[in-house]
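just leaving the lab so this will be short. below you get a single protein, a line of residues and a line of whole numbers that encode the local backbone shape. id like you to explain what the token line says about the fold, in plain words if possible. thanks a lot i owe you, the record is right below:

…
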Amino acid sequence: MKISRPKIYEQIANRLIEQIENGVLQEGERLPSIQKLAKEYGVSNASVREALNALRIIGLVEMKHGYGTFVKQKTPQLFDFISQALTPKRVKEILELREVVELSTVQFAAKHRTEDMLAEMQLALNDMEQAMRTHQSGEAADLRFHLAIAKASDNELLYELLHNISDLIQQTMKGTRHIYLYNREKTMERLLEEHIAILKAIEQQNAELAKQRMTSHLAEVRQTLVEHYIVD
């Protein structure tokens, strides 16, 4: 069965994910070569490389230089719980804090934003889009966007509050984005569009609309984590 557009690499990745989940491809097993997969699916070598890189990001495969690509594990690595700083309870608390703080910061940002701050937000979105196009998770740019909103709120305490836990926030963002890479019903494009919509509301200085869009975005993040049993 040939692969067809759009999002060729995502379709290839989904096919491989299904084979790993169903045990067709076992842990430790070497995948067919890029050239063989490209021929099988009727796509370019570049599309296969993109698909394998997406699976590498979420920990399903590992690439050994000179040896090929191997199945690393059956389930994706969405969060690293080796660090006791990021337990499921802590993730839940971070989400609750973000919901309380960021609904305020986005409203204040809509009222007080400057052209320089809008440019900083846009730059973060540009980097987020670039990360998406090169099949990286892009959580660093995501964090910069939300911190830029807090900075634009013109409230030092709100900004410092988010900045002080920025490392933990970035880890939850990374987990969320890995879920998007893994979940066949969600797309990174949709995640980017949510951020663009928030920026547009801030640009329009529409505080209520900015709050609505941030509410929707954070609710989607929470639901994504709930669906994957990360948060009770």
